Amino acid sequence: MTIKRIYILNGHPAESSLSKLFAEKYSDAAEKAGHDLRITHLHDLDFDPDFENGGYKNVKPLEPDLEVVLDNLKWSEHVVVLTPMWWGGLPAKLKGLIDRILLPGEAFDTRNTSRLGLPSPLLKGRSARVIMTSDTPNWFFRFIYKYAMVHQLRGQILGFVGFKPTRITHFSGASHPEPATVEVWSKKISELGTQAA
């Protein structure tokens, strides 16, 4: 097994959540397997999630916590993002973090474009795993919502800046799961952590 540098970002804004539990399960298993780890919990970060200016010419400086997150992304070989799905998308604070740190010159290059006209990704050579919770049943998420949030995360965010492959693990019925269900989910998370997958 190849030892990897893994960065875990718990993107749930609350201090206690399934996402935090799963982040810790993944971290514990990966550490026991010998992987090099860094972990961040979104609720611990102090930053303004508002991008504000709506352009890249007058970007406000990153707060120290955001500089650490960006450094961890660059350090990583594999990134694990844990997030709930709220109203079909990411929690506002997590989306704000993405808006603030995935900037030109850091995450993508608008001066060098592909044959399709897309900016060149600057975070290539890294893989990602998204662990998502929701109340929306998986079949409904797939056939009715057409995996919209998956397409956003895999293609328009992580893939856009170079993370490939990006794999998705989705647990539905997450608001009031039975303890036995959480145990099954936790076991799966631990297996992913051991494999750095």
From TrEMBL:
Q: Where are the transmembrane segments?
A: none
Q: Name any one Pfam family assigned in the record.
A: Flavodoxin_2
Q: Keywords of this protein's UniProt record, alphabetized?
A: Oxidoreductase
Would you name any one GO CC term? cytosol
In this chain the Flavodoxin-like fold domain maps to: 4-179
Q: Does the keyword Oxidoreductase apply?
A: yes
Q: Which GO terms describe its molecular function?
A: NAD(P)H dehydrogenase (quinone) activity
So what family is this one in?
A: Belongs to the NAD(P)H dehydrogenase (quinone) family.
Q: This chain belongs to which protein, by name?
A: Putative NADPH-quinone reductase (Modulator of drug activity B)
Protein source organism: Cohaesibacter gelatinilyticus
* Record lineage: Bacteria, Pseudomonadati, Pseudomonadota, Alphaproteobacteria, Hyphomicrobiales
